[in-house]
Structure to design on (746 residues):
């Protein structure tokens, strides 16, 4: 970017700053005004009204036909033919001004008007995007246009097949025939879907406009409020000074009185503005809530049952002991209880829980009778398993 | 009838034995191991096993008990909490109910059991720090046995401990109606000596036969029989609420007294560190009767290793073969074709663009 600006400055040209300043060196947001007659013809190749994409541009550009590069010709601009070969503008002028001629690379007959600016570094991508753009225009059927999902998927498969053939130059004539046949068969539906798409795009745009307007209105309101506040404060100050000048009373008292009045006014203002903004937010929030509601009703209703991890019902000896509410005289937990800063309890340790566990262990299994004799399931089988597996 | 919580523990379900069963397990395992090792000896050097004196089950137990004591020394050195020590001893004792010292020497298993216990009780120490504090030990010595030990424990790492039960009883004694308010301080010697008995109980088989609460109660009873009796009676006298008919009956002092006495005698009789000389003698004999398949460098060890390698190789080949035959068949790698068209409406394929 910097080098280009410098060039412009040296040549005494005004260089138009791009919509965004932070583009990298490989793309150019503002094409230099090339002084060739063809600029007007080639201009506007990128079909992106938002201006976010820009023409591809590299410092290593070199015209494959005349071998001139950016070092020799800083204004070099490469364009892409319909057979996806690059050429510089002067070559195009030279070769095609006198009418259609063959491409120096592949001998395909080209016309001057069929050249377009490059958007992607990889020309394969360039071609794929162009093909897909074309395909999408023709094959715009939707799921609703089909009886079942299976046939819709078959249709998508066919579309993908055609796109693949076109991109990779497989069986072009047959593929074109297929497209033509499809076009003839589905002309009405295609145009209908086209209209639908346009309508949707329009609706989306309207929605965006609405949101933007709302934002702007809110910002304006805020600015207005601030302005009001400022004016009021200035007025108060003026009043105070006037009063101090004219009045006979104690200066301190006057200042204090006016302060109280100012505080009252500002609090009233804050209340009214918050009410206002909440009103604004509510209208917006309500819209949003409505939207959410329709969305959620669309998703099928799954009953929200609580998850129960264990269904067994053990006796936890809880009636055999109680943890003393006033705590215990306990030397083991003393350090933790003395710890004022709570460093030892930082992980969520509670001495009551430790006591509870100790008391539980003290009464757990008190009544369990010991086993006797040899009549128990033989667990010696594991021994061999362990020894075998090692 | 509700099931008591303790009966849900693996300790109750899988690590509870009768005294007779314990000794039976040990003798049968020892006999089986001796048989296997004798066979291995004979396989490589016929007649060599005739003058080997194998260790018997009692001697094995003696050695394990000695290394249980070693664990507590090691814990003192590392300043590990009581829980780590108790857990590690349980692991070691449980391990030797499923394995024999002739296969795995307790001096190695002990280190792994202790390291495992630090992890399972949430007192982690780095392996390098652990190994560097123990002479002649590297990290791999500890880790090599880890899976074996875990497997022998059947991955049942949770252990209920008597020292925690003792703490609980000691806390609860303060709750007795007629106990002096400063009992914990004035009588703290009772707790200390009871804890000593709990530690001695770790050297015994008590934990395989009785529950931690019974062991703790017996330890208190050894020091202050009257206090233990009073506490037990207070528990037995809690009335069962009428609306709760599905809970087990209260522990009765009469039924428990036999167990308590038995634990007391176990602790006083067997809760001692074995005589070092006797242990040294067993260890000396163990050197001659170790399972040669487990001693690095011997013929049997190499043979077993080669065999294991061969088996693994076979397994790999079989797997590769299986893949080849599978691949050669006419199986579609993407699965069978769709059976029938999915009916629309089952799945909502609407995307956000067309909200109509």
């Amino acid at each position: 970017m910097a080098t280009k600006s410098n060039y412009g400055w040296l040549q005494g040209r005004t260089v138009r700053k791009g919509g965004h300043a932070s583009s990298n060196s490989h793309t150019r947001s503002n094409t230099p005004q090339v002084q060739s007659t063809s600029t007007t013809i080639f201009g506007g190749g990128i079909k992106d009204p938002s201006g976010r994409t820009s023409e591809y541009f590299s410092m290593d550009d070199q015209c494959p036909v005349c071998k001139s590069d950016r070092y020799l010709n800083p204004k070099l601009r490469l364009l892409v033919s319909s057979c996806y070969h690059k050429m510089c503008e002067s070559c195009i002028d030279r070769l095609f001004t006198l009418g259609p001629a063959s491409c120096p690379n592949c001998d395909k007959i080209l016309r001057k008007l069929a050249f377009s600016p490059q958007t992607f570094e990889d020309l394969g991508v360039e071609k794929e995007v162009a093909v897909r753009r074309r395909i999408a225009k023709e094959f715009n059927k939707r799921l609703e246009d089909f009886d079942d999902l299976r046939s819709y998927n078959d249709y998508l498969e066919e579309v993908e097949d055609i796109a693949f053939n076109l991109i990779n130059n497989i069986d072009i004539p047959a593929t074109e025939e297929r497209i033509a046949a499809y076009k003839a068969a589905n002309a009405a539906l295609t145009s209908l879907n086209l209209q639908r798409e346009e309508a949707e795009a329009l609706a989306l745009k309207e929605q965006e406009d609405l949101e933007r307007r709302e934002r702007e209105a809110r910002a304006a309101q805020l600015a207005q409020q601030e302005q009001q506040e400022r004016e009021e404060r200035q007025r108060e100050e003026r009043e105070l000074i006037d009063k101090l000048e004219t009045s006979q009373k104690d200066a301190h008292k006057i200042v204090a009185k006016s302060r109280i009045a100012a505080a009252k006014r500002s609090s009233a203002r804050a209340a009214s503005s918050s009410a206002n903004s909440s009103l604004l937010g509510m209208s917006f929030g309500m819209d949003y809530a409505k939207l959410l509601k329709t969305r959620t009703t669309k998703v099928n209703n799954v009953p929200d049952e609580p998850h129960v991890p264990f269904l067994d019902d053990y006796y936890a000896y809880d009636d055999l002991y109680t943890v003393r509410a006033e705590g215990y005289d306990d030397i083991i937990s003393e350090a933790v209880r003395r710890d004022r800063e709570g460093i030892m309890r930082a992980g969520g340790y509670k001495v009551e829980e430790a006591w509870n566990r100790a008391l539980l262990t003290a009464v757990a299994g008190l009544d369990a009778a010991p086993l006797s004799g040899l009549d128990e399931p033989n667990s010696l089988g594991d021994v061999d398993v362990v020894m075998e597996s090692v | 009838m509700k099931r008591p919580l303790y009966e849900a523990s693996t300790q109750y379900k899988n690590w509870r034995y009768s005294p007779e069963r314990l000794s039976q397990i040990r003798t049968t395992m020892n006999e089986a191991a001796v048989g296997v090792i004798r066979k291995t000896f004979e396989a490589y050097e016929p007649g060599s096993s005739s003058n080997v004196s194998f260790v018997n089950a009692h001697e094995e137990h003696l050695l394990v008990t000695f290394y249980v004591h070693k664990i507590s020394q090691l814990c003192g050195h590392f300043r590990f909490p009581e829980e780590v020590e108790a857990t590690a001893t349980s692991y070691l004792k449980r391990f030797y109910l499923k394995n024999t010292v002739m296969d795995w020497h307790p001096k190695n298993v002990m280190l792994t059991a202790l390291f495992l216990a630090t992890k399972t009780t949430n007192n982690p120490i780095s392996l390098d720090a652990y190994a560097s504090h123990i002479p002649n030990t590297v990290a791999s010595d500890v880790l090599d046995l880890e899976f074996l030990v875990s497997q022998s424990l059947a991955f049942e790492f949770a252990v209920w401990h008597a020292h925690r039960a003792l703490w609980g009883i000691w806390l609860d004694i303060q709750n007795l109606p007629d106990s002096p308010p400063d009992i914990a301080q004035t009588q703290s010697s009772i707790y200390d000596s009871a804890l000593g008995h709990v530690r001695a109980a770790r050297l015994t088989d008590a934990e395989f036969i009785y529950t931690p609460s019974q062991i703790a109660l017996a330890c208190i009873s050894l020091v202050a029989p009257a206090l233990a009796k009073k506490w037990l009676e207070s528990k037995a006298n809690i009335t069962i609420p009428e609306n709760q008919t599905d809970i087990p009956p209260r522990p009765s002092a009469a039924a428990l007294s036999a167990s308590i006495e038995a634990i007391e005698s176990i602790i006083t009789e067997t809760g001692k560190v074995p005589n070092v000389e006797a242990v040294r003698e067993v260890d000396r004999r163990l050197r001659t009767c170790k399972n040669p398949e487990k001693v690095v460098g011997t013929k049997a060890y190499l043979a077993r290793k080669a065999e294991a390698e061969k088996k693994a190789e076979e397994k790999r080949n079989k797997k590769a073969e299986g893949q080849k035959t599978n691949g050669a068949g006419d199986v579609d790698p993407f699965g069978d074709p769709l059976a029938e068209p999915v009916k629309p409406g089952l799945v909502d394929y609407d995307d956000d663009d067309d909200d109509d």
In short: The mean pLDDT of chain B is 88. Chain B has 17 helices and one strand. The CA atoms of residues 218 and 263 of chain B lie 6 Å apart.
